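HUMAN: Can I see a protein plus its fold?

ASSISTANT:
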Amino acid sequence: MHLKTIMKRGLTLGKFAPLHKGHEFLLKTALSEVDELYVLIYDTDVISVPLQVRAGWIKELFPTIIIIEAWDGPEGYGDTPEIKKVQEEYILKRLGTVKITHFYSSEFYGGHVSKALGAIDRRVDEARRVIPISGTALRKNTFGLRAYLSDIVYKDLVLRVCFLGAPSTGKSTLTIKLSAIYDTEYMPEYGAEFWLENQINRRITLDQFELIAPEHHNREDELVLQSNGYLFCDTCAITTYMFAKDYHGMAGPVLTQYAKMAEKRYDLFFLCDTDIPYHDTWERSGNQKRQWFQNQIIGDLKERKIPFIRLAGTLEERVQKVQKVLRDFEKYDTILDH
C-alpha cells in the first residue's frame, strides 16, 4: 500500500519595501521546509521602488519562488475584524485553486491568515532576534543600515546622477563638490583617464574606444554599492560615443550598445552649460570646438529623447540648482513630474 504524498506549499506576503536580510531569512527558511513557495507582493506608496523591481529582487535571489503581484491589494492594515476579513478574502481570491499548507510570516497576522487558509502558522523570527531589522528602519536610514541589504537591492536604491557637457564645462568640479556635500561617492570620467594613458598624437583607435564604456560601467557599479543615497557621475557612455563619432565618424557596436544602455541607467541627467570661462589645456581643442561639441551633445540627447536639466552660472549656483532638484526628486520618479 502506497501513501499519497501531500505537496507542501508555502505562502508569504508583504511589500518588501525594501527586501532585507530578515525577509531573506524567512524565505530561506520556507524554501527549506516546503516543496513550493508562493510570495504575494503588494503595491505600495511607502517606497518609490515599483512593484516589478521589488519582485525582481526576489526572483534574482530565489529563482524557484512563484511570484504573485498584488496590484489591486487592499490598502487597510491592522487587527480589526473588518480589515482581517478583507485581507483574507483577497488572499484566497488571488490564490484561486492553489492549496497552501504552510503560511510564513513574522507578524501578528500570521494567526488569522493561516487559519483562513487552513494552513500551518509558521512564524519566523517574529521577535527579530536573528535579524534585528525592519523595512521602516531601513527606509529611514538606508545607508546606515546597508549591511541588512543585498547588493542587488541596494544598487536599485541609489540615485544615479549623470553630468554631461562639452570639455571645460565644469563637470568634474561639480561632481567632486556634490559628493563632498552629500558625503557620498562620485564616478570620475574614465574615458579621460584612458585617453591620457593610451593616446598617440592626441588620438585613440576605434577599437580602443570599445574598451572604455564597459570599464566605466564596472567601476560605477562598484561605487554604487559604497554610495550614500546618490552616485554623481562625471559623464557616461554617451559622451564616449560622441567622442568616437568626432574622431572616427562612427562608434563601434560595443560602445553603441553601452550608450543605448545609458539612456535608462541614470535617474537624472544634467547638462553643464558653456557659460563659464574656457580652460585651455593641451589635451583640449579650443573654445570654438567646445561650443560645437556642446551642440552635438544636445542634439544627441534630444534624438535619444532623454530629458535633461541645464546648469548655468557659477559653481555655487549650479550646486544650488542640483540640490533643489534632489530635494524634490526620488528614485524612480520621472523628471517630467517635477
User: Anything to note?
Assistant: Strands lie at 9-14, 36-42, 66-70, 102-105, 120-123, 159-164, 185-187, 230-234, 268-272, 309-311.
